[in-house]
Amino acid sequence: MDEGRNYQAIVIGVSAGGMAALERILPKLSRGFPLPVLIVQHIGAVADSYLPIHFSMRCELPVYEAEDKQPIEAGVIYFAPPNYHLMVERQHTLALSTEDRVNFSRPAVDVLFETAADAFGPGLVGVVLTGSNGDGAVGMVRIRQRGGLLVVQTPESAEAPQMPEAVLEHTEVDRLLPLDEIGNFLNSLSEK
Fold first, then answer.
1. Alpha carbon 127 to chain centroid, angstroms
2. Which residue out of 15, 85, 110, 157 is catalytically annotated?
């Protein structure tokens, strides 16, 4: 399913239990990992920029809060800022928006996934982790329609299984993996 494919980017959507889940994935990405990683973690509108600071101390890759019109660079982890949707433009730059909430969230996973699917097509890897609503399911359908790879955390390994379950109800996935196997799987996608 993923043999010989040329991947260009990874998008990750996560909500309740996300900090602990990301701690088991992002630090496993090896130095020199060639793909950008764009993340929507549901956070409060007035949250600070703690996530990029926290993970920059734990990851070998550079970690940033996404900025509007920023070019997407290989081997960089980007977090959606509080109270902004994170989107990918066709020129592979980031865009931020204060449009209405989607699935009661801003940032919303579906917004990132749908725009990234349109920008990267079959070169996109979508990952849905723990979360307590259905955000991400519609976006994963779009990634599937554009030929991307779908990876979902097993509901039984998720602190909140609703987001993984919603994806499984909406579309077929390529990999259904326990949390502790996802980081190594992502590393394997970049190995020739």
1. 5
2. 15
Looking up residue 47, the CATH number of its domain turns out to be: 3.40.50.180
Q: 96-113 burial string, b = 16+ CB within 10 Å, else e?
A: beeeeebbebbbbbbbbb
Domain count, the chain: 1
The answer to whether residue 136 is domain-embedded is yes
Is 135 designated active site?
yes
Q: Report the predicted TM-score, pTM, of the whole model to 2 decimal places.
A: 0.95
Q: Which of 97, 135, 174, 180 is catalytic?
A: 135
Low-confidence spans in the chain with pLDDT less than 70 = 1-4, 44-47, 192
State the catalytic residue, choosing from 42, 85, 110, 157: 42
Q: How far is it, in rounded angstroms, from Cα 66 to Cα 188?
A: 25
Domain span at residue 65 reads 9-189
In the residue annotation, 15 being an active-site residue is answered as: yes
Tell me if residue 42 is catalytic: yes
pLDDT for 43:
81
Res 1: pLDDT = 44
